[in-house]
């Protein structure tokens, strides 16, 4: 089914009989998820494969732990601190260094930004925004429905990563708690949703997917580099606490569990950005090409 045909089908459900805002939001979110279903399958398979490969490497690290630790002890202290390499030979330390400090967060950020770009900018660029907004549906409902689809997408891929780690860790004798896995995945999920919410703002402002993807990726990489390089550059240290990557990972959730205050900070900023996106989208003239 083409995008326009899918929109027509959704429109028929939205018009007669006219459902309430909640039902409208669910219908629009369902359409958004259906359009990105193939992409979500690809991302899910990809993150599962990457996670499985990294887990397969762990036995060789564990059996040569003394040698690895001796080598890591010779590296600069700031570099070890940046990537928490002092705990590399432990289960949580290995997962943090190889997966949760960069790969899993960036995969989830990519999923969030893909959904954010599709939320408004893609509708304008393919000429379906006018059809959607001509329906008896408030713009606020439209954008919040697309935000809901983004949340579901990111949570789904994060769940695949969590299940892969939870199933694979015992197979390679990697000692990490289920609570730690869930906490780690929850924190990087909130990180990705914050970046995705920033993408919603960019999409509402510009109507261009390139701006959403470029700006969002730039924000995510800047936040990552500030957090990772701060221990090695004195001038970056004051900025580290402003990095969403630091908010998500500074508590070492794989070991220490879910950090409530940091999670609330990530969620609050994401909600504020989503509210800003709604405000901008309600006031902007939509240009369907």
Q: Any overview of this molecule?
A:
By secondary structure, the chain is mainly alpha-helical. It has one domain. 79% of the residues lie in helices and 0% in strands. Helix 1 (3-15) packs antiparallel against helix 2, helix 11 (178-206) crosses helix 12 (209-229) and helix 11 (178-206) packs parallel to helix 16. The longest helix is centred in the middle third of the chain and has 33 residues, at 139-171. It is globular, with a radius of gyration of 21 Å. This is ABC transporter permease subunit.
Order of helices and strands: HHHHHHHHHHHHHHHH
Level of helix content?
over 70%
Q: How many helical elements?
A: 16
Distance between the termini: 21 Å
Mean pLDDT: 85
Query: Cα-atom Rg, whole angstroms?
Result: 21 Å
User: In total, how many beta strands?
Assistant: 0
Q: What count of structural domains?
A: 1
Strand content: under 5%
Topology:
Layout: H1 3-15, H2 21-35, H3 37-63, H4 65-73, H5 77-82, H6 91-100, H7 103-119, H8 121-125, H9 129-133, H10 139-171, H11 178-206, H12 209-229, H13 237-240, H14 244-249, H15 253-256, H16 260-283
Key words describing this protein structure:
single chain; 289 residues; mainly alpha; 16 helices; globular; ABC transporter permease subunit; transmembrane; membrane
